[in-house]
Each structure stands twice: as structure tokens, then as C-alpha cells.
Amino acid sequence: MMRDVKIIPVIMSGGAGSRLWPASRQAMPKQLLPLVTEQTMVQETAERLSGDLFHPPVFICNAAHAEPIRTQMAAIDMAIGAIIVEPMGRNTAPCAVIAALHAKISDPKALILLAPADHHVTKPDAFRRSVAAAMTAAKNGNLVTFGITPDGPETGYGYIEQGDPLSPGAFEVNAFKEKPDRETAQSYLDKGGYFWNAGIFLFSPETLLTEMRKFHPEIVKQASLAYGHAGLVSGQVNLDEESFAACPSESIDYAVMEPTDKAAIVPANIGWNDIGSFTSLHALKKGEEGNAVKGDVIAYNTQNSLIETDGPLVTTVGIDGLAVIVKDGSILVAKLDAAQDVKKIVETLKAEKRNDKL
Predict the structure, then answer these.
(1) Where a domain ends, among 273, 305, 324?
(2) Is the bond leading into 22 cis (omega within 30 degrees of zero)?
(3) Crossing angle for the helix pair 63-75 and 41-48, nearest 10 degrees?
(4) Where in the sequence is the domain holding 299, given as residue range(s)?
């Protein structure tokens, strides 16, 4: 019976969050920060993926973040299934293979829910219902992705075109679409049946490994070596560095979801946001006069701005549409409509080897 099948949540926590500098740093990136609520992003994610359907979560992260994740899970009384440490980043396709290999040992009958650690979801119950609806398709050998119901012609996300029904709530994928221009995005909304690609997946370990062997056997080979030669210390799986370094870096979308004929989509109206920039953070938190303020701030004649400080008093007069962020002695002032370019500041700091600011 389907109820006998449980889900292993595998939470990918490897992102740097460079578009949210200086709030997000290498040692404490955005998924480890309380950006929207009193909980950190990874705490929100773990609680969203808990309940009768789920095993304790497995985390895939780098070595520096393993201990903060342990501490943050203990703070919410969340058991940890395992922490798998990547010696370097290799994108999401190797993550998916490692997750499948781990699941085959811990619970071979389980499905895997692969999810980023840094998404904000305002309707967690609706999300869990979407996951439950996806289980039949995943159990039947489909690689299921979750499509977010768009609320506007967003150009920052890829889109998925829904096809014919597969099972209640699940559909074939007709096509994956790259990030469109505004006119194309509007045409998707006008046609209907197009959803934002949230990068969340549900699949059986065997299906994922079979399809990955078909399209990217080298990823499976090197990831299998990295997992097979991993060191195990106190429940922490340290992937073998040499093997993992040889693993091609590829996204799960390009590696398997686009070429496979087993892709499925479950539309999900869950109040989703990936908080990829200060623009999206402002949109989530803005209140009176369109401002979102945190810390010691005095804002006079200020509209449509995001102002956050971790200590020093910040005062503003006569500004509109700005992000002003003060964190650990660094200050960012940026137009909110240019917030995607904050990553260029990080690139400059890296080029100048100013690692103390990263």
C-alpha cells in the first residue's frame, strides 16, 4: 500500500546566497539565517518536511555548515537522518545521485524528496498535500517536479509546460522552458498550463539512478565512488574528495529531467518564494509605506525600501526603492530593481581576495 511508503527528505544546503551579501556570507549563508520569520530558512524547510509521511531529514552540505545545521535542528527538536558532506560543490545532479545511493541503504522502499534549504513557503500544509499527491506518480516510476502557480510574468524563473494527466494531481511534462523575456512569460500566463520550476523533486532511488545511468553515467560512476569510499563519523557521511572532484558538475534539470520521458509535474499553489535577492525579500516583508525594516532604524520620508542593520543606527531621509543592509561591519546600498547585481560585489571581493568580507 502507498501508506507503507515513506519519504526521505533530502535537503540541499550548499548555496552561497551571494545576491544577499552582506547579510549572507560564506560561513553563514542565507539558508542558515532567519530572513523572513524567527526561524532560519533550513529550520523552516525541515519542519515543512516533517510528519507522518516523512523520515527524519538528510542534509547535503559543505563541512563548514554541518555543525550549524546540527545546532539549528537541535533548537527545534528535529531528529537528523544523516548529514552528507560534500568536499566541493558539484550542482544538483550529483546531489540527487548521492541521495538515491543513501536511500537504497537506509530504506530501499522509500521515495526521495529533494529540496533546497532556502525556499520560503507560506502554505506548508498545501505543500505536504502536493507531496502526497505526487507519491503515486513517483511510485509508478516517474521523476516528479513541483510546478509553482505563477502570480505574474516572472522572468527570473524557468517554466514547465503541463501535459496529459498521469494520476490524480500529477501530469506529464510537455516541455521545460528557459527563463523567458517578459513578453514570452506573459504569453505563458495567457495560455495557461505553465508553472514556475521550483527545483523540488520526488522520485524513487531506482528510477533516478536508472535514468541518470542512461544520460550521465559518469556522474553515477563518480558519485558512487565518492559515496562508497566515504568516511563515516558520528552519523556524518564525508564523501571521498578525489572521486567527488572527478564528478561532472550538472543540474538535475539538464542532466535528467529534460531528456527523460519519465518527467511529471504536480502543480503546487503553496505560497512559494526562493528569496533569491533583496527584491524578493522586500516583497515578502514590506509593510507600511512599502518599507521592510529590521534593527535600529529611523526612516523619514522613506518609501518602498528594505532597511536592515545588525547593530549601528541607520537613518534614512527621502529615499525610495533602496536596499540598505548593514551586517558585520559591511554596508550595502543598492537600488532594489538592481538587486540581482549584488553578486557582482561578491565577485569583486573574491577577485581582490578580501576573504574576510566574504
Answers:
(1) 273
(2) yes
(3) 60
(4) 278-357
- Per DSSP, 320 falls in state B
User: pLDDT-derived band of residue 1, with 50, 70 and 90 as boundaries?
Assistant: very low
Mode of pairing for the β-strands spanning 120-121 and 159-167: unpaired
Give the span between the Cα atoms of 220 and 282, in whole angstroms: 40
- Asked whether the CA dihedral 251, 252, 253, 259 is positive or negative, the reply is positive
Do 144 and 6 share a structural domain? Answer: yes
> How many domains in the chain?
2
Q: What would the mean pLDDT of 177-191 be, rounded to a whole number? A: 94
Helical packing angle, 217-228 and 205-215, nearest 10°: 130
Cβ atoms of 53 and 132 closer than 8 Å: yes
258 near 145, Cβ under 8 Å?
no
Amino acid (1-letter code) at residue 209 = L
Task: Give per-residue pLDDT as tens, 13-57.
Answer: 987 788 999 999 988 999 999 999 999 999 999 999 999 999 999
Distance CA 267, CA 196 (A): 9
Same domain, 245 and 330: no
Task: State the Cα–Cα distance between residues 188 and 291, nearest whole angstrom.
Answer: 31
| Pair 20, 341: CB distance under 8 Å | no
Identify the sign of the CA torsion 212, 217, 219, 221.
positive
Query: In angstroms, what CA-CA distances link 104 with 89, 91, 112?
Result: 23, 21, 10
Boundary residue ending a domain (251, 273, 295): 273
SS3 at position 141:
coil
What global pTM score does this model have? 0.93
